[in-house]
């Protein structure tokens, strides 16, 4: 069980990068971008093809990021210049990317198990340095010793660096303008700001992170598949919603931490759910939908209950006040 939990945290940290991209489009820009399902595979396919053809895996991952940026820019152009509905522009780009990704890969699946990947290089360097022995000795009292801590440490570092860059961007003038565009686009446009450019750049950056995550997932899992992006937008939303519900989102810094935490919690919930006897691996999408439903409904129920209790307390206070006022009136009349 502990091995499954450990693997879930590793995967959660990789998918956290994708969730940060979804956060940029859905929360910052208030743009329902369904390009994510396609750009995730774009990142995986670009990285896989380059690695198979002998490219440096780090360079392949960077190329995946650029490919994702291009996909996001295309969606932004469809919406801003083509005047297409945000939801429809994302759907159109997602459909187009399916064929583009098949073109990139040349087939529906590319195995990477025998190839040199970022994960393998990091693991080899980590083990050569002897960090696994150090950590296993330090944590020997837990009785748990994973095969390697390299992936967990590396992906945690990547997630924190990406989070820091997103935090920094959203606090710059450009980032503040992006946030304002998401809150009230007509108002920002009234100040002669280029809202179209902000949306295009924001969607490009969002899908760049999604594609980068796709490249890492492909190298982590050992393959790139044309269907690996199905439902990815739901997973990203689940991470954002769960994180905000559990950890809050009162500031940019806290919100991005919440997204990372939500991605990890989502993976842990999924791993625990799959240990239930009557659930199978094929039920992953159903479980994901149920998790998102719960994350959306439960906070609203809590808020409604809190509001009811507040109104009840207020009514009780008014009744007590009226009772006291009535008693004083009776006393004076006597």
List keywords for this structure.
single chain, 334 residues, mainly alpha, two-stranded antiparallel ribbon, 13 helices, globular, cell membrane
Give the biggest beta sheet.
2 strands, antiparallel
Low-confidence stretches: none
Distance between the termini: 76 Å
Helix content: over 70%
Tell me the structural class. mainly alpha
What pattern of helices and strands is seen along the backbone?
Answer: HHHHEHHHHHHEHHH
Globular, elongated, flat, extended or rod-shaped: what is the shape? globular
Count of alpha/pi helices:
13
GO molecular function: transmembrane transporter activity
Main location: membrane
Pfam family, one: BPD_transp_2
Subcellular location: Cell membrane
């Amino acid at each position: 069980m502990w091995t499954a939990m450990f693997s879930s945290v590793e995967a959660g940290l990789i998918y956290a990068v994708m969730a940060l991209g979804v956060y940029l489009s859905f929360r910052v820009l208030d743009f329902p971008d369904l390009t994510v399902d396609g750009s995730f595979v774009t990142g995986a396919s670009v990285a896989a093809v380059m690695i198979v053809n002998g490219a440096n895996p780090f360079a392949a991952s960077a190329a995946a990021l650029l490919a994702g940026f291009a996909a996001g820019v295309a969606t932004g152009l469809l919406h801003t210049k083509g005047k297409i509905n945000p939801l429809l522009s994302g759907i159109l780009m997602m459909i187009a990317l399916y064929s583009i990704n098949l073109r990139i890969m040349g087939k529906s699946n590319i195995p990477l198990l025998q190839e040199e990947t970022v994960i393998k290089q990091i693991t080899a360097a980590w083990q050569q340095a002897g960090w696994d022995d150090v950590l296993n000795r330090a944590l020997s009292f837990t009785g748990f010793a994973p095969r390697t801590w390299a992936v967990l440490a590396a992906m945690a570092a990547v997630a924190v660096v990406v989070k820091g860059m997103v935090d920094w961007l959203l606090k710059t003038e450009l980032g503040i303008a992006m946030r304002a565009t998401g809150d009230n686009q007509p108002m920002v446009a009234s100040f002669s700001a280029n809202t179209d450019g902000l949306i295009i750049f924001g969607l490009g950056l969002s899908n760049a992170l999604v594609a980068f995550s796709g490249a890492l997932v492909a190298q982590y899992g050992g393959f790139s598949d044309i269907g690996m992006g199905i439902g990815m937008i739901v997973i990203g939303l689940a991470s954002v919603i769960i994180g905000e519900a559990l950890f809050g989102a009162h500031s940019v810094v806290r919100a991005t931490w919440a997204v990372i935490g939500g991605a990890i919690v989502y993976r842990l919930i999924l791993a625990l759910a799959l240990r239930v006897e009557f659930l199978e691996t094929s039920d992953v999408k159903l479980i994901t939908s149920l998790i998102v439903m719960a994350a959306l409904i439960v906070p609203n129920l809590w808020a409604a209950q809190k509001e009811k209790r507040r109104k009840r307390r207020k009514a009780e206070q008014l009744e007590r006040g009226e009772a006291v006022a009535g008693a004083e009136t009776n006393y004076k009349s006597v």
